[in-house]
Amino acid sequence: TQLLEQSPQFLSIQEGENLTVYCNSSSVFSSLQWYRQEPGEGPVLLVTVVTGGEVKKLKRLTFQFGDARKDSSLHITAAQPGDTGLYLCAVSGGSNYKLTFGKGTLLTVNP
Amino acid sequence: EAGVAQSPRYKIIEKRQSVAFWCNPISGHATLYWYQQILGQGPKLLIQFQNNGVVDDSQLPKDRFSAERLKGVDSTLKIQPAKLEDSAVYLCASSLLPYEQYFGPGTRLTVT
Q1: Contact A33 B99 (CB under 8 A)
Q2: Tens digits of per-residue pLDDT, B40-64?
Q3: How far apart are CA A10 and CA A105, in angstroms?
């Protein structure tokens, strides 16, 4: 059983469209992170959300942490080809802050 | 500031052969991680070092995988002997703060 369920698994859209991807769990987390991984590269941290109901914006990206701190969403406005990549959510646990990742959403933005 | 460096970037070996990967973390980062990312999956932590000591190796297949971080800086991850299911991208990450991990570009391993 996956700790974090991400949906959709694949998403292909046209430039300029809006999209939302989701990260869900039955567990409660103290914080949650979103990463973007471009082809041939390692994941890059986009944001950390820590408060239930929190909304953070990063240019055209809007991240929300659920009120119960069990789920999160990432909304991209007016997607661009440069947004193409694998979007991963991750949570940390234990005294060593071990990161556990979801399987990711593979986003393709076509010009 | 230089990022996490990894080499080689690509490696193709036959099953039962041995392979080693190298990682140079960001200068000053005490914590170093090795992850395995199988195609279609998120990264899975294999081993975590704090300086040159192992903090977590609970998911490292110790019968075939080994890792070391001599002098608390560079690290190597070895697989001996490799199996087909070891085909994956091996990512190295380092951190100064536990919530901020910086990843290298990874080594793509293909076992035939």
Answers
A1: yes
A2: 899 999 999 998 899 999 999 999 9
A3: 6
